[in-house]
Design brief:
Family: Belongs to the class-II aminoacyl-tRNA synthetase family. HisZ subfamily.
Strand content: 15-25%
GO molecular function: glycosyltransferase activity
Number of strands: 17
Shape: elongated
InterPro entries: aa-tRNA-synth_II/BPL/LPL, HisRS-like_core, HisRS/HisZ, HisZ
Number of helices: 16
Distance between the termini: 50 Å
Structural class: alpha+beta
Keywords: Amino-acid biosynthesis, Cytoplasm, Glycosyltransferase, Histidine biosynthesis, Transferase
Helix content: 40-55%
Largest sheet: 9 strands, mixed
Pathway: Amino-acid biosynthesis; L-histidine biosynthesis; L-histidine from 5-phospho-alpha-D-ribose 1-diphosphate: step 1/9
Radius of gyration: 27 Å
């Protein structure tokens, strides 16, 4: 039987939700602050969007399968359909249209950043319904330089968060979609799955069942093969580029973007993976598709891309933390500071502890009080502290310091 809370509600969380204990919550705050600090240095200004929106805002952007994952309800009083925030980009687009139109019309590039939670109905038992993101949006600049900036910024953000050497996967979703538009009617979703798995044999069988010309048939095969280091773009046959000018134009833009990254960050360029068969992600993506991977996480740490009017990415904090746990299990370090503990609960001793805590806070240190604990219990409760001040039954204050977790050393003794 599941545990039940006093009011009779099952004491388990809804599917896809989780709690964070103090150490993990503290690390999340530190990681979020580190990411936002990087974005600030790159000129991205913070914005805050509401947790609820009219459903129409998302309905204009999201495909039907994503709209079905929105948590919707009727707004009291108006009868309008509203939804919990399921994605940030549609909100940024709404904000830009309502409040930033003049700046964008004047030709200004607008850089925005955010830290927000999104909620989507989970599609499986292991999928999180609540996701925590810190991201950026770059509006009004559709040049290759803007795409390169986002790639460089994503890597800088991950390094600031403690993930070095992440693999950044780059694609242009317009390439595969352009090929799909030139196919006869078929099960495109099945083709998406084959390309995602790099199932060359499966793609060949799929193509064999279609009435295709030579170029589309060859290109479908190449979409599976053209996956790897940026040099893979050199393997695109010149005759296909000549036959399909639209493809040559998209490839040239992607090559320009990668060249800009190579010029500014050769080490990052060496970690890029190009996938010309990539089609996953929100349907509103129109060009650049960016994802970042690191050991320990089965989900990408960064997701994003280019859409009509802008481009951006989100750092997925949950996936990032899984990777940090896998590579540095001690990263969620204790908070530090001093805990003042008293053996009993007498008002006089608690007053002395309060005075000591106020003095520590005035000096800029983190300080808090525990009452009614033995020394052993106080040391266990002070796991987050660097220092423990223990006021015993004899009214004397013992000061203990903690170098390594659980390694307490008595520093001094004085009158309370």
């Amino acid at each position: 039987m599941s545990a039940r809370s006093p009011d009779g509600v099952d004491a388990v969380l809804p599917r896809g939700a989780r709690d964070l204990l103090p150490g993990a919550a503290r690390r999340r705050r530190a990681v979020t602050d580190a990411l936002l600090a990087v974005f600030d240095r790159w000129g991205y200004d913070p914005v805050v969007t509401p947790a609820i929106e009219y459903f129409a805002v998302f309905g204009r952007w999201l495909a039907e399968r994503e709209r079905q994952r929105c948590v919707r309800f009727i707004e009291a009083g108006s009868g309008e359909l509203v939804t919990l925030r399921s994605d940030i980009t549609p909100q940024i687009a709404r904000l830009a249209e309502q409040q930033l139109r003049e700046r964008l019309a004047a030709g200004e590039a607008v850089r925005l950043c955010y830290a927000a939670d999104v909620v989507r109905l989970s599609e499986g038992a292991r999928e999180q319904s609540e996701r925590h993101q810190v991201g950026v949006e770059l509006l009004g600049d559709d040049a290759p330089e803007a795409d390169a900036e986002l790639i460089l910024l994503a890597d800088a953000a991950l390094r600031a968060a403690g993930v070095a050497g992440a693999t950044l996967e780059v694609a242009d979703v317009g390439i595969a979609r352009g090929v799909f538009e030139r196919l006869p009617s078929c099960d495109v979703e099945a083709l998406h799955g084959l390309l995602a798995r790099k199932d060359a044999a499966g793609v060949a069988r799929f193509a064999a069942g279609l009435d295709l010309g030579e170029e589309p048939r060859r290109w479908l095969g190449l979409l599976c093969e053209l996956f790897g280091a940026p040099g893979i773009l050199e393997h695109v046959p010149e005759d296909i580029r000549a036959t399909w000018p639209w493809l040559a134009e998209r490839l040239a833009r992607l090559e320009d973007t990668l060249a800009l990254v190579r010029g500014r960050a050769p080490e990052l360029h060496a970690r890029l993976v190009v996938d010309l068969g990539e089609v996953r992600g929100f349907d509103y993506y129109t060009g650049l598709r960016l994802r970042a991977w690191a050991p320990g996480s089965a989900r990408p740490l960064v997701v994003g891309g280019r859409y009509a009017g802008g481009a951006g990415f989100a750092v997925e904090l949950d996936a990032l933390e899984v990777s940090l746990d896998a590579t540095d299990g001690d990263r969620a370090a204790r908070a530090g500071g001093v805990m003042i503990a008293v053996h009993g609960r007498e008002p006089r001793l608690r007053a002395a502890a309060s005075a000591r805590a106020e003095a520590e806070r005035a000096a800029g240190r983190r300080a808090w009080i525990q009452a009614g604990l033995s020394l052993e219990a106080a040391q266990a409760a002070a796991a987050e502290a660097d220092e423990l001040v223990y006021i015993g039954a004899d009214e004397r204050a013992e000061i203990w310091s903690q170098g390594q977790p659980g390694a307490w050393r008595r520093a001094e003794e004085s009158g309370a």
